[in-house]
Amino acid sequence: MLSKIRQQEILVAFNSSFLSKIYFEKCNAGSSEIFIELEKIEEAFWNGLLGEVLPEVFTMNTSDRPLYIWEIREYNSIMEIDMGECPSVKDNYFCIDPYKFMAKQSNELNN
Predict the structure, then answer these.
(1) How far apart are CA 48 and CA 69, in angstroms?
(2) Where do runs of H (alpha helix) occur along the chain?
(3) What CA–CA distances, in Å, run from 82 to 40, 69, 85, 88, 93?
């Protein structure tokens, strides 16, 4: 019997109060900088900050197999974090990334 590979996508909006709070509490502690450095946020996510600020993503694991961050992409107004048990191909039809999802929908409407 084939087991299903779990995948998780998380979108973080750059202009959200959630991201601002994370940045000023964790990444910019002690500094007076007002703007958010996305590179610092991305590096912090790679280094385990995601599990610290969103523990429910990791505790919802119904199997004993851990989730890993495989890719982080920055777009105009969002950061997409791809997680899973192993790297795998996503079906853009079910993707929550609006750029991929809308492109897939547009292609289907034009065919």
Answers:
(1) 9
(2) 17-22, 38-46, 49-53, 55-59, 98-110
(3) 18, 6, 11, 10, 15
Q: For position 72, what pLDDT does the model report?
A: 92
Which residues is 74 bridged to in the sheet?
Answer: 79
User: Measured between alpha carbons, how far is 30 from 7 in angstroms, rounded to an integer?
Assistant: 36
Can you tell me the distance from the alpha carbon of 52 to that of 85, in angstroms, rounded to the nearest whole number? 19
Cα–Cα distance measured from residue 45 to residue 48, given in angstroms and rounded to the nearest whole number: 5
H or E stretch at 73: strand 68-74
Nearest to 79 by CA among 108, 56, 46, 52: 46
List pLDDT tens digits, range 30-79: 665 656 778 888 888 899 888 888 888 776 656 677 788 998 988 888 88
**Cα separations in angstroms, 33 against 15, 16, 29, 36:** 16, 17, 10, 8
